[in-house]
Amino acid sequence: MTFTIPIDNGDAVKIAEAESQRTLYPYVTGTSIVAIKYKDGVLMASDMGGSYGSTLRYKNIERMQAIGKHSLLGASGEISDFQEILRYLDELTLNDNMWDDGNSLGPKEIHNYLTRVMYNRRNKFNPLWNTLVLGGVKNGKSYLGMVSMIGVSFEDDHVATGFGNHLARPILRDEWHADMSFEDGVKLLEKCMRVLLYRDRSAINKLQIAKITEEGVTVSQPYSLKTFWEFSSFHNPTAGAEGSW
């Protein structure tokens, strides 16, 4: 498409209008987010890797962010789309603060908003390529929910995205309980992240754990887990499989 702009000397200049581009396939992506409720609030864990295709290109990407006073957001998937979602949420919380009515958006409201955003973009065939985890605490009640890239959402006591939905959720079902202390919750998340590190090619051994309570959000400094790579199944993982050598 082109359009014409007249100039002072009577001539005209034709300018090509750039075609709008959509994210047809994610480029730089982050892998699993794992989150649980514990007795004082919500704990969330993610690594800091960013994969360019199958290449671990970036190793310092933070994928958990405080939203307003009561919420914590984590994201798997396309990093640039996550940044766009954060821009939406900045506008939402700014407008909420401008009312100055003594009230503020809680995690349930943020979760509902994100569900509508993701479903709306899906219906435009221009989805945001993310799976989102939203946790928070307001008025003494903990909240934890998830939203997929097509707007499917639910609440639960523990959630995981990406590979974590297959490898971490069974661990959480077996070992999670409602009155977990902070220390026990961190140990459980580290166990899940260690399993993902062993099995997910996109995971890296550099993670953060965030917590949200009535007092607010705290995100840990990046750190690494102790690992053991001498398991016999790691040396020849396809031994005994059909068609293997």
Automatic annotation (TrEMBL):
GO terms for cellular component: cytoplasm; nucleus; proteasome core complex, beta-subunit complex. InterPro entries: Ntn_hydrolases_N (IPR029055), Proteasome_alpha (IPR050115), Proteasome_beta4 (IPR016295), Proteasome_bsu_CS (IPR016050), Proteasome_sua/b (IPR001353), Proteasome_suB-type (IPR023333). Keywords: Cytoplasm, Nucleus, Proteasome. It is found in: Cytoplasm; Nucleus. GO terms for biological process: proteolysis involved in protein catabolic process. It comes from the Eukaryota. Component of the 20S core complex of the 26S proteasome. The 26S proteasome is composed of a core protease (CP), known as the 20S proteasome, capped at one or both ends by the 19S regulatory particle (RP/PA700). The 20S proteasome core is composed of 28 subunits that are arranged in four stacked rings, resulting in a barrel-shaped structure. The two end rings are each formed by seven alpha subunits, and the two central rings are each formed by seven beta subunits. The catalytic chamber with the active sites is on the inside of the barrel. Non-catalytic component of the proteasome. Belongs to the peptidase T1B family. This is Proteasome subunit beta. It comes from Capsella rubella. The lineage of its organism: Eukaryota, Viridiplantae, Streptophyta, Embryophyta, Tracheophyta.
